[in-house]
Specification:
The chain is mainly α. It has one domain (7-304). It has helices at residues 7-10, 13-32, 36-48, 55-58, 62-80, 94-98, 107-141, 144-169, 174-177, 182-189, 191-208, 212-222, 227-266, 268-296, 301-304. Helix 7 (107-141) packs across helix 12 and helix 8 packs antiparallel against helix 14 (268-296).
Length: 310
């Protein structure tokens, strides 16, 4: 029998506020104690270093290594960014994607397509821009002041968007939600529409990413002086940055898809709670790490306490 209990009935306001506060505090702790050296080093030393070598040495070798190597470079650059501070929030989006199994495990492929399309589109457009810049223009974009300003703007905006979305999911803004038409609400409640929005956010990760290894890749891509080539390899990079999340999601669906479907049908409010809290966690992380941290020097507690080096 289909469960008719509403989200508000399942979780009263006091419980939802408590869960939200705890989630925000946990996200702040993770952001404040984030060890950039380990996270960035894993991609730089293990993923890239163990496959193609030092990306700093490879960045300006397009003339000798050619376009084919750039495809490999792009895939490695995407994979290497998986656990960095500008990409790890992607895993907070998995609960929302997993909801698609509520209509049956096969629906995950449609949802993944809806999620991937804006990632490819946005990274492809950004690649056109990089290709137009060429090797001279990319030097200015890669300047420390420019790339940090870019990351601050992009990730702070994404943080606000994710936090707002999460608070909306938690039912704290029902007055605003009820102010729009039922047709509009039904449209944005569709799983694949949510997947497109999540994919657009992930696509913007590439635009804001200040990761040095990624910046080496930008130099290589721009050195081709070909916007179409830049677009192509940037799309491959975009696919690389979501590859591990997609594989994990498919594994979850393969192992527990039918159970997730049954739970989504009987207790859909549980998915709404998990999805809302995940978005709040991701948004808080971005706002604290990239916004408040950059602007006011907050966080980096592990370094300040002498626990981390580098």
């Amino acid at each position: 029998m289909e469960n008719t209990m509403s989200f508000e009935d399942a979780y009263n306001a006091k419980k939802r506020i408590w869960y939200t506060i705890v989630t925000i505090l946990i996200a702040i702790l993770i952001a404040g104690f984030w060890n950039r050296g380990i996270a960035d080093g894993f991609g730089r030393d293990i993923i890239a270093g163990g496959t193609i070598g030092s990306t700093g040495d490879l960045a300006d070798q397009y003339d000798t290594r050619g376009g084919g190597f750039g495809i490999i470079f792009a895939a490695i650059a995407g994979l290497a960014a998986t656990f960095t501070a500008c990409n790890c929030v992607i895993f907070a989006m998995m609960p929302g994607m997993a909801c698609s199994t509520g209509s049956g495990p096969t629906s995950i492929w449609k949802t993944l397509g809806a999620f991937t399309a804006p990632v490819v589109l946005i990274t492809g457009i950004y690649g056109l821009y990089i290709g137009f810049l060429g090797p001279v223009g990319i030097e200015h974009v890669n300047a420390v002041e420019v790339r940090y300003a870019q990351s601050f703007a992009v990730f702070t905006a994404l943080g606000f968007a994710m936090l707002f979305w999460g608070i909306l999911e938690m039912g704290f803004l029902d007055r605003i939600k009820n102010g729009v038409s039922q047709t509009t609400r039904d449209f944005f409640n569709m799983i694949n529409v949510k997947a497109v929005l999540l994919g657009a956010m992930v696509g913007m990760f590439t635009v804001g990413r200040p990761y040095p290894l990624f910046r080496d890749f930008l130099v290589y891509a721009a050195s081709a002086k070909n916007p179409l080539y830049g677009s192509g390899v940037m799309m491959i990079q975009g696919l690389g940055q979501i590859a591990i999340m997609v594989l994990l999601l498919l594994m979850v669906v393969w192992l527990a898809g039918h159970r997730i479907s049954a739970l989504a049908a009987s207790k859909p409010y549980k998915f709404q709670m998990i999805s809302g809290l995940a978005l709040i966690a991701g948004g808080t992380y971005f706002l604290f790490y990239w916004g408040l941290g950059r602007q006011f020097g907050w966080g980096r507690w592990g370094y300040k306490l002498g626990w981390y080096t580098g």
